[in-house]
Write a structure and sequence with these properties.
The chain is of the alpha/beta class. Helix content is 38%, strand content 13%.
């Protein structure tokens, strides 16, 4: 007898998330939940909504941050400073599984929307507070934008060249907090399955990024010295850097041990004498003589085009990569070969978007819904709560909803 094929549902199918969110950290966390099947209701201010909507107009007139972090959500434009707006929110929370907020420190508590208040009122609710520096301590009320937290966490001090520290080119603090909030929600939902209670989740951007600083932090605390900034080079391994090729590209290679160095010297550099030369034979020697090591590698790769250099390095079993631009990432052959691109709807029409990194073979396809317009789902959500057209019209007239 032939067995029927069965597609596993998305793991968060049936989970409802309500989020009072802005910028990147909370929106990116709830987008992960939406991708895995959760229904995400995004509560925004009626007067402009999530301020990330106005960051730029690069995505066919829409803001690139907003497009990236907000697909698959329903937008409810609601004034939470008005008691009627808060009544609507609490009506939604009656049937919600998760609440996420990243308002300015103290704002959620003033509205009664902090995790402590909501957990007491809704015992099954997973209530998430995402903040810059945590709920207490001398930094609790400081403004916490991504680059500020990158600085406070020391990330900027280890990124860049010996002469110039630089911030990460992506919002690393926001993303770190988002991913811990995402995993915290999953853990709390799993616990609720055992205990029946949701409970609180607290994530701060500083805590999250401090965790990601684990290597330089432990190197400094236990080794006594902070790792030096080395640009694209590795602080304690050589050669491990990007080198220019004859056609103007740059190829990064990494030699992880002395056996690989011997192969590099013999098969790529065509300098077998360097395999046993005391000035190059060990990683300690190569790191001490970094300028000479880099010069030898640069001379050899500088005679080759990028494709030829990569071909020769791969044939020798040396780890390597092309130093791609963002445009080259968008056209990356590996992403194309693995069919990683999809289209999502938006107020500006279809937009390309990557599938989420979590792959669940044999399961339903990720939910990649449209990027919502501000207040696009307000009326449908209010009607689902039992409001009449007259009531909705009155709320619109008073600016409570949009």
């Amino acid at each position: 007898m032939a067995t029927e094929s069965f597609t596993e549902p998305l793991p968060l199918d049936g989970v409802t998330v309500v989020s009072v969110e802005q910028a990147v950290s909370a929106p990116f966390a709830t987008r992960q939940l939406a991708d895995l099947g959760a229904r995400v209701i995004k509560v925004e201010r009626p007067d402009g909504g999530d301020f990330a909507r106005g960051y730029d107009t690069a995505a066919h007139g829409l803001a690139s941050h907003f497009v990236w972090a907000n697909r698959g959500k329903e937008s409810l434009a609601l004034d939470l400073k008005d008691p009627r707006g808060r009544e609507v929110l609490h009506a939604l929370l009656e049937g919600a599984d998760v609440f996420v907020q990243n308002l300015a420190q103290g704002a959620a508590a003033r509205l009664g929307l902090d995790s402590a208040a909501l957990s007491a009122r809704y015992p099954r609710l997973v209530a998430v507070d995402v903040s810059g520096y945590g709920p207490e301590g001398p930094y609790a009320h400081k403004r916490a934008y991504d680059m500020l937290v990158q600085c406070e966490a020391g990330l900027v001090s280890v990124t860049g060249t010996p002469e110039q520290p630089v911030k990460a080119g992506i919002p690393a603090a926001d993303i770190a907090a988002a991913m811990y909030a995402f995993s915290g929600v999953l853990a709390a939902l799993l616990r609720r399955g055992t205990t029946g209670r949701g409970g609180r989740v607290e994530v701060s951007m500083l805590d999250a990024l401090a965790e990601w600083m684990g290597h330089p932090l432990h190197h400094t605390m236990h080794g006594g010295e902070q790792p030096v900034r080395t640009g694209l080079a590795h602080a304690v391994i050589a050669p491990y850097d990007a080198y220019p090729t004859a056609d103007g590209d740059r190829v990064l290679l990494s030699v992880q041990n002395d056996r690989e160095w011997r192969r590099l010297a013999e098969q790529v550099l065509e300098r077998p004498d360097l395999a046993q030369d005391p000035g190059f034979a060990t990683n300690a020697a190569r790191t001490a003589n970094r300028e000479k090591t880099d010069a030898v590698v640069a001379e050899a790769l500088g005679r080759l085009g990028a494709d030829a250099a990569i071909g020769r390095l791969e044939e020798a079993g040396i780890a390597c990569a092309r130093l791609n631009s963002v445009a080259q990432l968008a056209a990356h052959p590996q992403l194309e070969a693995r069919d990683r691109w999809r289209e999502v709807g938006s107020p500006a029409g279809p937009l390309r978007a990557l599938l989420p990194p979590i792959v669940l073979p044999g399961g339903a396809a990720p939910h990649m819904g449209a990027v919502p317009a501000l207040g696009e789902h307000t009326e449908a959500l209010l009607r689902a709560l039992g409001m009449t057209g007259e009531q909705i019209t009155a709320l619109r007239r008073d600016g409570v909803v949009r």
